[in-house]
Fold this sequence. Notes:
Layout (H helix, E strand, L loop, with lengths): L18 H6 L5 H7 L11 H6 L6 H4 L39 E3 L2 E2 L5 E5 L29 H8 L6 E5 L8 H12 L6 E6 L1 H4 L6 H9 L3 E7 L8 H11 L4 E7 L8 H13 L3 E6 L14 H14 L7 E4 L8 E2 L12
Parallel strand pairs: 3-4, 4-5, 5-6, 6-7, 7-8, 8-9
Antiparallel strand pairs: 1-2, 2-3, 9-10
Amino acid sequence: MQSKRPSLARVHPAPETTWQQQYRDSITSIDTLCDALELHADELSTSQTAERQFPLRVPLSYVRRMQRSDPHDPLLLQVLPHALEEQEAAGYGPDPVGDLASVKSPGLLKKYHGRALLLATSRCAVHCRFCFRRHFPYALQNPRGDAWRSALDEIAADPSIEEIILSGGDPLVLSDRELTQLVGQLQAIPHIRRLRVHTRLPVVIPERINGELLDWINGCELDVVVVLHINHPRELDHGLQKRLRTLSAARCCVLNQSVLMRGINDDADTLVALSQHLFDAGVLPYYLHLLDKVQGAMHFDVDESTACAIMKEVAARLPGYLVPRLVKEQAGEPGKTPVAYQADVLPYPA
């Protein structure tokens, strides 16, 4: 009897589908992903245990940028549940950056002076295997349960907060109507000056950058900063670059942060190409993070000395404005910790 396998009917969605439909049509099965890429799970060292602990989710538009029949594709490795995730090691845990110690109310985190982070939603368009919040207890930290009222009250009561960082999950999973409602309430708080949106959704579903989103950004009364998360130049295909140029032309500052990962982008050629591709799309490189030591992601880790050697070469090949700041996040510190890779160069400020 032939075993049932997930349908591939939606691997090539019609180009007119909305971003919401593409989000709903995301691949959530290892077998479906393997079939779409003409691969076999047994040659990929996939893990059903890892998949149960942190479910696979990847939009089809992102899968189409992967190289077929290549088990080492750097985009594939970012989303594929791997047997190495089952390994445990000292120093890797479920809350590597101290999120839970910084909770001020459900979904509201305050680590740094002048800034607070609001977990606008628990949902993401893609489940990255290196995610430092892959074990985060979202069920207990859901500010949408009371329409963000507790979080908004906490923000309003703290005049030291000038900037709100929308994170998650991914805040752009919210509809533009929901974003307008939430940000409208933030705008009404007199001491809030800036809004920072951390998102990977447009990277995996470029159609999220549409007229409605641009209208929302252009109409926002706060200064808006959009921080994307792009790790590899192959993520920046023509379609995404075109959309990012429209975003960079809107009333916002567009930055990018990446994570340095073994087997993904841990060489100077890749990082130089990434910075150049970003700038071509109107995006400025911002941070290159050392991996947050989250349980299940140790196989991505690049040691600090290797990272410094790579960045020294990157800095020698690019103008300064295209060199991202090499940083690491340490629980309890007042900001990102710069990692100096040249003895005669002072580290960037956090």
